[in-house]
Write the structure tokens for this entry.
Amino acid sequence: MDSFGHLSCQALWDDISIDKFKNDIHTDSVKTKLQNLEKRGDRPLYCQSMKTMYATILFRASTNNPERRYESQKILEEVLEKDKTNITSLADLIYIYEHTCNAWKAEVLKKRLIENKENDLALARTYYDRAHIIRHFEQDKRTFTYFKFLEMSRDHIKVVNNCNNERIETERAEILFDYGLSLYRKYHQKTEFGLLEKTEILNSNLRLEEAINGFLDVIDIKFSPGECTALSWIFIAILLRLKKSFDQRMEETASYANERLGDVTVEQCLEKGLQFSPQNANVLRRIASEYVHLNKIKEALIFFQSSIEIEESWFAFRHQGLLYLKMYNDNESDTKDDDYLSKAQNSFQKAIDLKETHADLSDLGYIFLLRGKKKIFDRKYKEGRDDLDKAIFHFAAAVNMTDCDDYCNPIETFERWGKCLQLTGDSKGLMQVRQMSIERESLLIQREVPANSIGEPDIRSIKTSVISPTNNEHDFNVVASQSKAESKSESDYEWVVKNLVPKLEDEFNLHGFLSERDKVLGEDYVKTLVNAIHSSRYNIMVLSPDFRSCNWCNYFMEIVVYSAVKRGSSVLVLMLQECEIPKQLQPFSKENLIMCLNKSIDAKQLQGIFNNT
């Protein structure tokens, strides 16, 4: 069956690991969702995709359970009775028949499968199935590998001309809606968590424009499901709000205009959505979430509760918890209402009961952090420390969920974790958490940048693709060890102050940053140095054995590399004493290596490097 490519069984698709079927623990929740969809009856294509996915999960997750495997076969045969051209069911049944030695049945279905390999409607449905099952298993990942299959599904359904067939037009609306939703999710997520540079926002803005037109196409379809039409209006409202935010970031003041949409406000779009499906739980919770952005807090609370009464969902509980947390933080009085924190905690816990995610664990930990901090300030030290310990366990659990990065900011979780350790006075633990934060942030960056032939980030190619740093406060910053071995007359940092900095400032007319000279009185030492790294055109790393053994030097080295990748600053490697060059600096040292082994500075070499960077 693997020779049929896109026509093969779901379990054989390269995009999905077979282990994901074996390890899926949500079989019962998928069955419940399927039953609810069948009861509603307004999303035929989505329901059919859910049914074939449920059958595949049953078969794959039940190796030694013949009853469940038989149930899987019967579900697929039922689908095929209603849709004889259903490629997904044909391929899955062929796979099952071959594994149970039903050779004759398998051959009959293979012929039917080949007959439909050029059928645009059948292909639109099977690509939709493929996107749906990938999205199910990657619903908490920011990978969006399902996007290309929704795009192919859309392309095939576009050439199917049968506007008077209610079933086909309903499916067309479903495909166009999910394609628009994927555009929204993909570019909103990357923008929301700062994964787009300013120059990339324009492309994101264009794709969101495409999403708005896609949702308008859904609304124009006569037989569009009520939920798709309602949610299309709601997502248009969300996109209008996002476009306004994008324009502000791009420093554009022109008002948004769409001839098809007309002069409509965000509030009017939400009202239209509610009119089409006033009792749909998904519609109600989405409107509630938007009301929070519009600062309609009372209305948001009512809509969240109404949604939960109809159907309990992770989205509703999570965003209800965020609202209670916002209400607590927005209270500027000295005596904040702890009732809001309790309600937020309850909502986040219910969200976790339905689906454990990084975001909910982090926010639940944040609630314990707020409580612990308050108790310590009130001199209730033991109770405060207990709450901080609970917070730390939640943050640790959150960052360990490496398979979950959607709708979360792992760097914020590390910052919260660090605040807990600051309050407990654990400086060593704080250093460890900061190091972990740098490593995680580097992983996030590497997903967005090219790699060279040996799999390492190609720093030189990255530098050409990012915006060059602007408004730099300093020409250079130096990272050097301040520790001094007994055999040395001065530390590396002292040599920098006495020799390197004067040469660069006096002879090269550059302005550098020296922490002891330039830091603002009262500012946090670490924060000051990090800001200096990000605001300097050149970051000079002074290497010696002392550098390699200094935790602070290694910490700041990671930030320097991050700044080079993300901001485009230059890294110069100065070898003061012979030692191994850290792996992180090797891409820079190939071209920007300054040799000062006798502690004398070669002005000609220095000049050449500065001229070439």
Summary: Confidence is low (pLDDT under 50) at residues 1-5, 193-199, 249-255, 445-471. The longest helix spans residues 166-192.
